[in-house]
Amino acid sequence: MISLAKLQRRIDAGDLSADDSIAQSLEAITAQDKTIGAFVCRAENLRAASDGPLRGIAVGIKDIIDTADFPTEMGSPIYRGYRPRGDAAVVMMLKQAGASIIGKTTTTAFASVDPTPTFNPHNKGHTPGGSSSGSAAAVAAGMVPLALGTQTGGSVIRPASFCGVAAIKPSYHLLPTVGVKCFSWTLDTVGLFAAGVDDVARGLSAMTGRPELLLPPTISTPRIGVVTQDFAGAPEASGEAALRIARRAVEKAGATVRALALPKNVAEAWRAQPVVQEFEAHRALAWEYREHYDAMAPLLRAKLDGSRDTTSFAYDEAIAVATRARQALEKVFDGVEVLLTLSAPGVAPKGLGSTGDARYNRVWTLMGVPCVNVPALVAEINLPVGVQVIARYGADAQALAAARFVEQALAGRISAA
Amino acid sequence: MISLAKLQRRIDAGDLSADDSIAQSLEAITAQDKTIGAFVCRAENLRAASDGPLRGIAVGIKDIIDTADFPTEMGSPIYRGYRPRGDAAVVMMLKQAGASIIGKTTTTAFASVDPTPTFNPHNKGHTPGGSSSGSAAAVAAGMVPLALGTQTGGSVIRPASFCGVAAIKPSYHLLPTVGVKCFSWTLDTVGLFAAGVDDVARGLSAMTGRPELLLPPTISTPRIGVVTQDFAGAPEASGEAALRIARRAVEKAGATVRALALPKNVAEAWRAQPVVQEFEAHRALAWEYREHYDAMAPLLRAKLDGSRDTTSFAYDEAIAVATRARQALEKVFDGVEVLLTLSAPGVAPKGLGSTGDARYNRVWTLMGVPCVNVPALVAEINLPVGVQVIARYGADAQALAAARFVEQALAGRISAA
User: How many angstroms separate the CA atoms of A206 and A98, rounded?
Assistant: First the structure.
């Protein structure tokens, strides 16, 4: 993988020109993407910006995010050749920070669950996960140092876990969704993929112009609550192993760790999330569903068919459940700085028939809290598994710092004093 | 004006065909719009839907709301000829309820403050207000029974007050903003204009499929708190008269009325609203501002120039202020069902140099609470002035019912038992 932090250091030191940095990504895509399929379209020639913290950084953009310079096809033939008039807010934030947009990455149709023809770079017999399939795969394969995705259920953290890359789903609305195709306005969140936690932090800090999101020079030892999300069912052996190994590593590194039971309200919110997601999707995708029913991707269409009769009463109830759960979760964070939990049930599923299961992600998207994936182990058949570090709403800096602690603990780079 | 309720009754009774109802609106636009300028573009021929509660109802759509069948030009040459791929969620909600989209109404550029060439139907020497200028004017002139607008500061309630029509800015996100050009994601709210409160309630209920938003057969007598929003400065004589007359009318009609001082937090939120609005606008309109600076409307551009340096710290503070104010406002509604306050400082300003002042609207948009304009008096030079009825977040039905009470009290149709 390409480390954004390393690129920045080499560019700043004059060891690498910003243009050469971009050229390396262009070459990597040419060399690798025919066997991975992470990009829908890409730039042929691309220059670096002359300044900005992300100059020389090539970024892949999930293809539900508007770009004026590339078509934006939403993973659906309904938008074939569609060329937005302008760039999405997050694309402009990248450009203003000096980044270069190198191409559009594959997305399941409208960021739902119909798989794309993208392979997991670690094992091409497996899915990279979704819905941000191409962004996770492009970073994992070392084609780009940074990519944008979006998460409504588990579409950033899950593919990051399957592809062995770091990623953040920031607090709700830290990054604007203006110019991002909507699935659910209560849930949709733009996220970042990069090689490691420091790389993700640098990307997010530069985009938002928030220096407080950079990792501090010294990472303090966090108080960690481990949660297993029993309401979501049991994990597979590899998922369980990842959480166990991460827990052991942070304990060894001196963190205060305790198992936590989540409040009942949070379990209720886990059940409410699909109601919110699908009620809103019926409105957000009403034009596509009514006017282009036959061209809709089959799994998404079946999901919408099955949720047609969700009442506004059920939706209002689900929103009320979410509000109560957010309040209850705030109190959980009075006792611990971050939660440590599963990013996915286990390794990436075999084949390209499914993008995997978002069951350990969806309640956190509804809670709007920042979630960071940290690769934790490489399981059988060369497939990675990550763990998820979660902080309270708005504490993205804390989530990143604690994730860095977990990352370094797993690498054996911290030991208790 | 055309009453939506009356049209529905005539169509249901077979006194008027749904197609003839639409044809009447087409003719009214042909007859009137050359002297009003409410429409950017319009259908030449249009048929009614065969069913749905809004069949036969012609609707004007503010031109920042995406329509697949009409260009969507955002009031700006930057979007000249722009044709979205699909319909906005609210347009689909109208169509699914059986309404017919008759055309696009004028909007200030990106729903900001640069006036459109639209005249107030009551007095063509005056503005209809903005930013939903065309939608308010089209309803006031009797061209359509229903129109959609949006409000970020005061862009629904203010033009409704200036044009003497009923309107609702519903609770935040009761209507989705998917496919609506974003100015500020925390504030932007889609609203409805119609002849009277019952008409507005019928439109909103049909769009959302929520029968609870229809007016009840018997309107109960509300407990009303009158607020003058002193933090926003004093009103003009006509605005003050409107509030005084409305207060006297509801007292005479038997309502319990008392003057209320708003919590200090709400006054702080009033000062915070422009910070939220402009910080977010810099991100939402980043592409336009950076790539089409010269083509930006001058007042909007000057506003953006002046707020370039707003820090994320100031924004975070403003959001925190808003959160505290929402909590404080909830408690105010423990004592009264609705607030009664000014919709605008006074009558519509003279000329087309300004769309008027949103100072009595902006805090309510930030609070996300439902606001209904009720026309209260016709002041000097034939210009109307409205008052604003406000309920707690989510209590749109209560806001509408109380607004109906105010409307009937003003018409002298209720007297205390």
Answer: 9
